[in-house]
Amino acid sequence: MSHLGRKILNVVPMLLVFSLGFFMGMISDSKFPNFYIPFVPPMPSPALPLPQLPVSSQSPPLQPIPPPPPSLQLQVAEVMRFLVPKSAMHNMTDEELFWWASMAPKVRSMLFHRVAKVAFLFLTRGNLPLWPLWEMFFNGHDGLYSIYVHTDPSYTGSLPEESVFYGRIIPSQKMMWGDMSLVAAERRLLANALLDLSNERFVLLSESCIPLYDFPTVHAVLTGSNTSFVDSFVNHDSEVRYNPFFADRSNITLAQWRKGTPWFEMDRALAVEVISDDTYFLAFREYCAVQPACLMDEHYIPTPLSLIGWMHNANRTLTYADWRIGEVHPQTYGRDDVTEDLIRKIRGGAGSGRNCTYNDGANGTCYLFARKFAHDALEPLFRLNPKVMGFG
């Protein structure tokens, strides 16, 4: 090796230190003080002696590369401090957020042991009236889940610092029922959750949702599945919502038009596809701008799934809702409705008319979550919880 080559090798550690310090300085001084670094810096390996190659008498003996300085000895715990901050707030715009979140690592192997986490995305209008039940559900399972809450920007409530929901509200924007602002909120939740590389499954929930099983069961079903669970089906009654505008604006034909409940459970690959879409989302948003209560939240994700030919989808949701009452909203369960029989029937797919046995890793499980449950249903849910749902 030439004398110049040895000099280059000797300055590499110094360049690494300078680059790392410069990058971390940008992060700490930028307008993104709580930003999660969307990658893990490589763990340095011990310095190894160079092979003893023949050298000329005119050249100085080869020296081993010096070990990296202590500042490069990054520990996983320190890296994770940046990856998963206590507060979910940041100062990024949606454009910046979606750009960072759309990055997908190509190397699947990790430099440290990583357990797949489930990201629970709560889309709410204000507070979380059933939060004590969810606290019991999450209790004792730190490191296996992440929580993100999108609420109305006017909401000023708070929860105790010891709550798992404390600090988990993301930068939120105004939402309206039946409007594309709901879809924008869903994408915003997904994008924030994608910044944590340990999140492998993503579940959209409302403030009226409850878990039907204990956490280990829910985690095992979701992380053990090789498909997503997104409602996407042909519904001829929904054809009245199709407009030729979609064909002109984004080549969506009536044959590709799909409907489904917006309460999804999806994997990371599909989540990246959803937040990276800058074609269909814009078309849907333009349409809703001139069509109040367009109800496109029931069509936006299901329709692009058919357009891109996504194969890894069970075409069903794992979140139960009873639409048999024939209203614009599903059945709401209050204090007097919550019984052991109700929970067991919901878990078994009562009234769904569907075969819940799929080759998708769900092992015949019909539903993991259910809605809509009123605030006054909390007490009977607490009472039934240990016997029926199995946690608490």
TrEMBL record:
It comes from the Eukaryota. Pfam families: Branch (PF02485). GO terms for molecular function: glycosyltransferase activity. Keywords: Glycoprotein, Glycosyltransferase, Membrane, Transferase, Transmembrane, Transmembrane helix. It is a single-pass type II membrane protein. InterPro entries: BC10-like, Glyco_trans_14. Coiled coil: none annotated. The chain crosses the membrane at residues 7-27. GO terms for cellular component: membrane. It is found in: Membrane. The keyword Transmembrane applies. This is Core-2/I-branching beta-1,6-N-acetylglucosaminyltransferase family protein.
